[in-house]
Design a protein that fits this description.
Elements lengths: L1 H14 L9 E5 L5 E3 L13 E3 L6 E3 L6 E5 L9
Parallel strand pairs: 1-5
Antiparallel strand pairs: 2-3, 4-5
Length: 82
């Protein structure tokens, strides 16, 4: 049951496509971890290779490819991407 719920979450995220490399700042919820840039819901055809960014300890991470800054927020906090 847990795996189906997780798969449903990933499918839902991917259905909400956002353009990659169009913003410099993204809010990320703990439920969206692990963090990768570009994120799973971003189109990859015009982006850099996907890399995973460590955000758990510092609550912020910066992509070395595109310079996007990611900030970890509470799951209850609305994000700029919602």
């Amino acid at each position: 049951m847990t795996q189906n719920t997780e798969n449903d979450s990933v499918t839902a995220l991917r259905s909400q496509r956002i353009p990659s490399n169009t913003e410099n700042y993204y809010s990320v919820k703990r439920s969206e971890l692990p963090l990768s840039c570009p994120m799973p819901q971003m189109e990859l055809w015009n982006s850099h290779p996907r890399i995973y960014l460590p955000i758990e300890e510092a609550s912020k991470a910066k992509c070395p490819y595109c310079g996007a800054v990611y900030e970890l927020v509470d799951d209850a906090t609305p994000t700029r991407n919602d």
